[in-house]
Amino acid sequence: MQVATTTSPAAASTGTSNKASLQKVAQQFEAVFLRQMIGAMRSASLAEGIDDSAATQQFRDMADSRTADAMASKGAMGIAELLLKQFGDRVSDAPSPTAPNGSTPATGA
Question: Residue 79's domain spans which residues?
Fold first, then answer.
């Protein structure tokens, strides 16, 4: 006798939580990318200003980080959206972790 597998509500919610996790990670990746880009733009200045100090630099870094987070949450660059398009199908089609080797267990009689 062979047992057929069906999709349980728990497996469906796992797929949904995987999609949500992917979306969150993609947004975080976009924020990190934007922080690096903004930091590189800041370091390209040619001269020091009159009010440049360690405290000013730290404040600027924090403000740049918040700006990058806000831009990523709005999808300003579209990087997270592209990552979702790239990896979204892989997450939803991933097998449920029912067996260690990725196959679904079947019982025989």
Answer: 13-43+51-92
The single residue listed with the structure tokens 């006798």 is 1
Chain center to CA of 66: 17
Q: Please say whether the beta carbons of 72 and 30 come within 8 A.
A: yes
Tens digits of residue pLDDT in 26-73: 999 999 999 999 989 888 776 667 777 888 888 989 999 999 999 999
Distance CA 38, CA 55 (A): 18
* Total tally of structural domains belonging to the chain: 1
pTM: 0.61
Residue 57 contacts residue 64 (beta carbons within 8 Å): no
Classify residue 80: in a domain, yes or no. Answer: yes
Residue 66 falls inside a structural domain: yes
